[in-house]
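Record minuted for everyone:
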Amino acid sequence: MDKSSKRLYFDILYNFSYNESMNTKEKIMEVAEKLVLKKGFEKVTLTDIASELDISQPALYKHYKNKAEVWESLTTSWFDKITAKLLPFQAKADQSLSEICHDWLWTLCESKYQAYKEAPEMFALYTQYALRDPKIADYHLDSMVNSLSEATGIKDLTALRALYFLGSRYHYSGFASRWDEHFQEDFESAWKLIEPYFRGLEEEKKA
């Protein structure tokens, strides 16, 4: 076998192994989610997942070191899925800074609202688990703040975190039971109180 043939052979072998690994991870996530929705995070074991997949536990450990890693991957993946419109956020052409911030925050809040209304049990399961694991909460916060920074060009992450927390009444899971048919109307009322700050930032950028 000449040098180029060897390279082609190993490239094919690597790609096959990589794709096989990714497929196995996806299957693990699918099975883990199904079991968690049925039994809850606390009652599902790696043995349950391996048994459902008909693989050995050592085979499972090739992808995840422990149960916490599986839950972390599952939960961060869920957050990314429900906030996909923000990763990245596509601002409309010629929007002002305050308009971008408004639309970004509304997209975040509406995404959480829809996730809660469409699958309340799943919403409760993942958000409650995230509250118990600071790494997941930090991951989601950083992901959202970076998204807003990219959309606005604002590098002051402290100001962007402030916007995130100011809107928490409409995207934090602890308030979900109070989200009703007046959700958007209430959001717009709250935005009127927040907007002047971002108009001020806009004026500073122009000066």
User: Anything to note?
Assistant: The CA atoms of residues 89 and 151 lie 6 Å apart.
